[in-house]
Amino acid sequence: MKPLIVVLIFAAFTACVPHKQWRTQAASAGPAPDANVEKRFVIPTDLNKNRIYSLAFVEFKNNGEPWDKRQLDEALRAIDDADQRSNHHALVITFLHGWKNNAAPSNNNVFDFRRQLNRIASNACQGDKGHCGVVGIYLAWSGDLVSRDWNTLRNLTYFDRRDTAVNVAAAPLGDALFAIMKQVKTGPERSTNHSVVVGHSFGGLILEYAITKRMQELGDELHQELGKHTTLEGYHLKTLEDFADLVVLINQAAPATNAVTLLSHYREDLARVNLLRPPSKSNCAPGDSSQECKELTRPLILSISSETDLATRTVLPIAETIAAPKNRPKTLPPDVRLPPGVDTKKVFTTTATFTPQLASHQLIKCTTGDCTPCLKEDKYYIPVSITLPAYAPGSSTNEDTPIKYCLARVRDRNAWNHTPYWIFTIPTEIVPDHSTIFTDRFIDFLTAFLPPLEKFNPGQPALPRQTLHTAKSQ
Amino acid sequence: MEGYEHYLFWTGFMTTFGKQGKAVSKYLGLILALLIPASSSAQSDDPEKDLPPAFHCGDRNDLRMSGKDKACYWWTNSFNAQMLFGAAFTTALDPIFNGSSDPYWGQGATGFSKRFGTRVAQSMTKGTGQALVGALFKEDPRFFVSRKQGFWPRFGFALAHTLIVKNDNGRQQLSAGRLAGAFSSGFVGMAWTPGPINSVDNALVRTGTAMGGVLAGSLWTEFQPDVMKLVSSMFRRPPKAAPAPGAPKP
Question: What are phi and psi of A253, to 5 degrees?
Answer without folding.
Answer: -95, 65
